[in-house]
Write a structure and sequence with these properties.
This protein is mainly α and 219 residues long. The protein contains eight helices and no strands. The protein has one domain.
């Protein structure tokens, strides 16, 4: 009787740890870079006034180039045994997907320019291209959390283009950072670096593209 009572706290602790691990896994997958990229594009699309059919098509181009094709390549590489899993835990596994993503987003950005896409979408395309390029360069020597970088870009985009509430962006970003650390995929330093990298990528492009465009439209 005493033995079972003594083991009870350990059992409860084990259950709590298992539950915490499941929560971290769920957050990491629900707020993965592809899902966040899709969510960001949808938020921008819904915030635009009366989009024409061609403009909706441009949002589709962004989703294809930023989400569908890069994610598809990762799954193909996993199936072929070229990388361990979709999280690409070894930094050496990230080079090929990042290069492909940069190429996809470079094409998307040119399309956005040629088609005179809404400024917010144009900024998002260039910022995503820039972020992938920076992630590739960093992956040559080290690695940062791509999940956190995606959330950093998403948070900056929501706040700058949609007047989005920080009360939504900040908790979601912190949740992703915690999940990646909890799953032992990254350190806190790597998640902080990722958030800063994503946020700065969008802010820099927004100031150069979106901010200037907004100022010109008011003149």
């Amino acid at each position: 009787m005493n033995h079972s009572q003594g083991a009870h706290p350990q059992t409860q602790t084990g259950r709590l740890r298992a539950l915490t691990d499941r929560v971290a896994w769920a957050i990491s997958n629900v707020l993965s870079p592809p899902m966040v990229g899709l969510l960001g594009a949808l938020i921008l699309a819904l915030r635009q006034p009366a989009l024409a059919a061609g403009e909706w098509l441009l949002f589709g181009v962004y989703i294809l180039m930023a989400v569908v094709l890069p994610t598809g390549l990762v799954f193909i590489l996993v199936a072929a045994g070229r990388i361990g899993d979709v999280n690409m835990n070894a930094r050496e596994e990230r080079a090929r997907p990042y290069i492909f993503a940069v190429a996809c987003m470079a094409v998307a950005s040119v399309v956005m320019l040629a088609a005179r896409a809404p400024l917010a979408l144009l900024a998002l395309s260039f910022a995503t291209c820039l972020l992938y390029a920076l992630l590739y360069v960093i992956s040559l020597r080290s690695k940062v959390s791509a999940h956190s970088a995606g959330m950093g870009l998403f948070s900056a985009m929501v706040v700058m283009t949609a007047g989005g509430p920080l009360l939504l962006a900040v908790p979601l970003t912190l949740a992703v950072m915690w999940a990646r650390v909890r799953m032992r995929r990254h350190t806190w330093a790597q998640t902080v670096a990722g958030v800063l990298l994503g946020g700065v990528s969008f802010l820099a492009v927004w100031l150069a593209v979106g901010g200037n465009g907004a100022a010109q439209s008011q003149q």
